[in-house]
Design a protein that fits this description.
Elements: H1 3-8, H2 18-21, H3 24-38, E1 42-43, E2 45-47, H4 52-55, E3 60-62, H5 64-72, E4 79-81, H6 86-95, E5 101-103, H7 119-133, E6 137-142, H8 147-155, E7 159-161, H9 166-173, E8 179-183, H10 186-195, E9 203-207, E10 212-215, E11 224-227, H11 239-248, E12 253-256, H12 262-267, E13 270-271, H13 274-283, E14 289-293, H14 296-305, E15 310-313, H15 329-340, H16 352-366
Parallel strand pairs: 1-4, 2-3, 4-5, 6-7, 6-8, 8-11, 9-11, 12-13, 12-14, 14-15
Antiparallel strand pairs: 9-10
Length: 369
């Protein structure tokens, strides 16, 4: 399901009027009450990018890899109310038992990056790549992708990756095939491949709309094929932000997520996954200064949790991700109250034929992480 489709169903998921009349305290108390009532039968995972009003109720918080692992180890949870986005809920459904139900409190919670690679485009592009390079390509997909794309990758011998294990998974992939197709985020793929000493001229960007390749070198020399997709949040950081910061606060360190563009990553002091950023800030000495290039909810939370350090966003005008931030306290409470009434809303399920191959791709990653 694409973001535009999710937006079209907004009217279908509009909350009853009573939720706008409840106070924040009343909603918090009701969430606590329902959580206590269900006990271990209810599990609420929360992604780091979620709003504070939601993340406070998470039984576990983490990045995609951590939450994928945890969900696969929660057989006692009858209901998993996922405070994240659609592709994360899909992953949870695929890694949990058939008797467990995964719920997304707001169906509009999606990922624009994941929607930049649909299965028809991928199969069409794959055919074109086979014509050029033959059977020399192994596909890898970032977990920020649809279940169908994960299934495609699994069917063709590939695996999923996260920003925390992308380097390890690319190293493994090159033991399997001569070339790698990396989708849907070109920036994570480019930055990771460059860290493995693959020159930019040996990378090509595939445009699924034009069905063309962009390459500085020769196509026959290409080692990594990058899908032309990106994170709409991380692309908003640019080198000018870093240059301005260096001029104004030369003693402040810059740490960014590898979904940022190549030039931003190269100009920063450090780059790494969400977990890496969190750990770096937690272990940094008191009094240290940091400009962080990632989603605003996380940056603000880190600033609140570490008042002994100066923490700001690399882009002072950055807004939270529109789709990542769809889930709020009223939607969380609504989905829980429906459960209390015996009704499962926004049940996320993945067809068996997709799940079979997608789980192969996920397990290949989990076995090596």
């Amino acid at each position: 399901m694409e973001v535009l489709d999710l937006l079209e169903i907004e009217s279908e998921v509009s909350l009853p009027k009573r939720y706008s009349e409840l106070t924040v305290v009343e909603m918090k108390n009701r969430v606590k009450e329902i959580k206590a009532k269900f006990g271990e039968r209810l599990f609420i995972p929360g992604h780091h990018y979620q709003k504070d009003e939601v993340i406070q109720f998470a039984d576990a918080r983490g990045d995609s890899l951590k939450l994928a692992r945890i969900c696969s180890l929660m057989p006692e949870a009858e209901y998993i109310v996922f405070c994240g986005v659609h592709f994360m809920a899909e992953t949870a459904d695929m890694l949990t038992g058939s008797d467990q139900k995964v719920i997304l409190p707001d169906l509009r919670a999606g990922c624009s990056m994941a929607d930049m690679a649909d299965i028809d485009q991928t199969e069409s592009g794959w055919s074109k790549m086979q014509e050029i390079w033959g059977d020399s390509i192994l596909p890898l997909t970032y977990v920020n992708s649809t279940a169908a794309i994960k299934g495609f990758v699994g069917k063709h011998g590939g695996a999923t990756v996260t920003s925390s294990n992308a380097k390890k998974m690319l190293e493994w992939a090159f033991t399997q095939k001569e070339r790698i197709l990396f989708l849907p985020d070109q920036h994570l793929g480019r930055n990771t491949a460059y860290d493995l000493s693959i020159p930019l001229k040996q990378m090509a960007v595939y445009d699924p709309i034009q069905r063309t390749f962009e390459c500085e070198g020769k196509l026959e020399d290409v080692k990594v094929i990058l899908w032309k997709g990106h994170c709409s949040v991380h692309e908003k950081f640019n080198v000018k932000h870093i240059h301005n910061l260096r001029n104004q606060k030369p003693d402040m360190k810059v740490i960014v997520h590898p979904e940022c563009t190549f030039d931003v990553v190269q100009a920063s002091d450090l780059n790494g996954s969400t977990g890496f950023i969190i750990n770096t800030i937690e272990n940094a000495p008191s009094g240290s200064k940091w400009a962080i290039g990632t989603e605003m909810n996380l940056v603000n939370r880190l600033a609140q949790e570490h008042p002994d350090k100066e923490i700001i966003s690399l882009n002072p005008f950055m807004c939270p991700c529109l789709t990542m931030n769809r889930i709020d306290l009223p939607h969380l409470l609504w989905s829980l109250e429906k459960l209390e009434q015996g009704e499962v809303v926004n049940h996320i399920t993945v067809p068996k034929e997709i799940t079979e191959y997608a789980v192969l791709a996920l397990n290949r990653m989990l076995e090596r992480s």
